[in-house]
Structures are given as C-alpha cells and as structure tokens.
Amino acid sequence: MRVLCVGGIQYKNAASRFYDVTQKIMNGFIREGHTVLYFSDRDVSRANNLFRSRKMGVLRCNKEFVKVVESFMPELIVFKHADVISPEAINFIKESYPLMKMVQLNVDALFNPDNVNRIRSKSGILDATFVTTAGNALEKIKVNDKPIYFIPNPVDASIETGRSFEEVDLSVDAFFAMGGTFDGDFRNDYLKQLAADLPQCSIRLFVSSLGYGIRGAAYYSTLADSKCGLNLSRKAESGREALPEDLYLYSSDRIAQYVGNGLLTFTDKDFSLNKLFTEDEMVFYSGYEDLREKLKYYLDNPKERQRIAKNGWKKAHRAYNERQCAKFILEAAFGDLNSTFEWDTSPV
Predict the structure, then answer these.
(1) Which of 105, 218, 272, 315 is most buried, taking the most CB atoms under 10 A from its CB?
(2) Residue 129's CB: how many other CB atoms inside 10 A?
(3) Residue-wise pLDDT tens digits, 182-191
(4) How far is CA 175 from the centre of its chain?
(5) According to the 3-state scheme, what is the secondary structure of 242-255?
(6) What is the DSSP string of 86-141?
(7) N-terminal to C-terminal alpha carbon distance within the chain
(8) For residue 240, is pLDDT > 90?
C-alpha cells in the first residue's frame, strides 16, 4: 500500500527531533510492508515565498500537496499536526478520489483549546482521528460522527536503543526535560524541592523555553546515562486547569522516550497510565511527597529499579511499538480492526 505522511517533521529543526512520532509511524508502515512518502507542509509553505513565512506560503503549499497526491496516488494519507493543509484541499481530494482514506494523528493535550480547535477543523471531514488521550474527553473533538481513537505514544527499537536498566552505575539519577513552562507550573516547584530534599541525587533538568533545552543525539545519550525518568506532564494550559477527563491516559511523547530507553519512569496517578502499565512496569505517585519517597527508595534499591524498568521497557517495545501503532491506524482507517492490540481500540 502507498502511504503519504503529512506534517510532524520540520527540516528547519536540522534533525534535532529525529525521534518524532511521525518518524516512528513512518518506520512502522515501512516495516509492515508499505511504501511511505513524506510531505512537510510547514517547510513547503516556507519555501514557497520570498520571506520564508509559513503563513504567506499556505496557498501554494496546498497546491503542491494536491499535486503530490495526484502523482503518488496513496491509498492512505496520515496528517500529523499538518495545520497548513486546508479543509478545502482535503475536500477536493475526497471528491476527486473517494476511495482514498485520510486520517489525522495528534499527540498534544486536549486541555489546550487551540489544539482542540485544530483537531476539530479536520476531524469532521477525515475518516478517523487518533489522539494520545482516551475516554470522555474525546467527545469534544468529535464532529459529524467521525470516529476518534486513542493511540499510545509509540516506541521504536531503532530509535529507542538505550537499556538503562542493564546498568547499576549511571551518572544521572533522575532526568526531566520539557519544552516550556509558565507561571504557577507545579513542575517547577517539584523540581526545586526535589533538589533541596535529595541533595545527594544527580538530577538533570532541561527546559527549552528557558534556553537550556536538550535535543537530538545529545538528548538520547543523556537518557542512556540516566537511571530514572520523571514524566511530569502538564495539568494546565495558560493558567487554566485541566479537567480530570482531559488527563485520562494522556502523556507527552517523552513517556515513550523514557520507557523505551529503559529508564525507570515515574508518572502521576492522575493520568491513569496504570491502564497501560502495571506497578511492576512503571512507578505511579500521588503528590510531591509520594514522588520524593519513591524516587529515594528506588535509587537506594538499584535491583528493584532495574527490575521494574526492564519490565516497562519490555512492555513498551512489545505492545506499543511503531509497527503495532501503524497497523492500528491502517486497520481503523479502513474499518477492518482484526488484529489484537493491548489498549482499548473502541472509537468514540
């Protein structure tokens, strides 16, 4: 089958996010035996105007997109955060090639109103939508009775190559990286308090928006030298607290990067990720004190850390790998869910 993947990887980032979900999904389709072509809507848009402005190149980008579709004639098109592609271009493709399936994949939080609007702009005209949140929150992005599916953040063994659980002595005790923060972000308080309460621990913190982020090979090299990963996900957007239903099974893709590289991963119970991993595969905490005590315990007990981290690594690579996720997208898009998956595949 010919598969066209649109959006998600930007050439302007100079491969600093080679571990992007889009890359993993493309790998999954290829390993399942399909031909994959990639179209970067944002880069094409920038390239099609003198000022290298994404907004100024939208019209020409959509024309280029239609040309690519007509030349490649994919059986499946997967949009991943492809905001430059307009609903009008999608409708033109639908009318011209009614047998062609089109879906979208979104890995951002559903308590972000802008993200909800972006998803809704296409969810009513595509054959299916896949998001990394589950449950009742999916109702807010459902339009025209088109199906919405939960999909886990994929792990790819060719990208997640680390095996931190194999080592007792690593230079980093606890690792955390995030793109940005905001006033009142509880994660800032947690990290400051952890540094104060556990001065003997080596805690590495990276925040891109504050000028000390980490990406690319350096990021994965640091993960491979880390014992524990703190999966501290946001619970608010621009000061607005998320509803409990908006957190259900949600995590940024860092969870796949941590677990997939063999770190013992710590996750807040509020996100209900115990539906995907057991307590023998991941550490679940409730509040700061619980996180602090559990982190200290597992750092003091390396064999337990290694055991649980290895179990989580095995589960992620078996159940939530790139081939399973690509297969799920394909089967759901064509209404033929015959394979067995280790997550709830029921649509909303």
Answers:
(1) 105
(2) 27
(3) 878 899 999 9
(4) 18
(5) CCHHHHCCCCCCHH
(6) -HHHHHHHHHH-TT-EEEEEE-S-TT-HHHHHHHHHHHTTSSEEEES--GGGGGGG
(7) 27
(8) no
| Region for residue 230 given its phi and psi (left: phi exceeds 0; alpha: psi -120 to 50; beta: otherwise) | beta
Q: 157 Cβ partners below 8 Å, 6+ apart?
A: 260, 317, 321
Instruction: Pull the structure tokens for residue 271.
Output: 């996100």
In one-letter notation, the amino acid at residue 183 is D
Beta carbons of 269 and 286 less than 8 angstroms apart: yes
Give me 101's structure tokens: 């399936």
Asked if residue 257 lies in contact with residue 19, where contact means CB atoms within 8 angstroms, the answer is: yes
The torsion angles phi and psi of 83, rounded to 5 degrees, stand at -70, -20
Q: How far apart are CA 154 and CA 160, in angstroms?
A: 10
How many C-beta atoms lie closer than 10 Å to residue 329's C-beta?
23
For the chain, list the domains and their CATH numbers. Answer: 2-154+321-333 (3.40.50.2000), 164-319 (3.40.50.2000)
CA–CA dist 190, 110 (Å, integer):
23
Q: How many CB atoms lie within 10 A of CB 238?
A: 9
Query: What residues are paired with 4 via a beta bridge?
Result: 37, 77
Mutual orientation of helices 21-31 and 322-333 as an angle, nearest 10°? Answer: 80
| Burial (0-12, 13-18, 19+ Cβ within 10 Å), 243 | middle
Give tens-digit pLDDT for 19-40.
Answer: 999 999 999 999 999 999 999 9
- Are 177 and 214 in contact by the 8 Å Cβ rule? The answer is yes
Distance CA 157, CA 165 (A): 15
Per the listing, tokens 């399936």 go with 101
For residue 271, which amino acid is it?
A: F
Closest alpha carbon to 260 in 312, 328, 323: 312
Measured distance CA(291)–CA(300) in Å, rounded: 14
Q: 3-class SS at 82?
A: coil
Q: Would you mind telling me the total number of residues written for the chain in this entry?
A: 348
Which residues lie below 8 Å from residue 153, measured CB to CB, with a gap of 6+? Answer: 21, 107, 132, 251, 252, 253, 255, 256, 320
pTM: 0.97
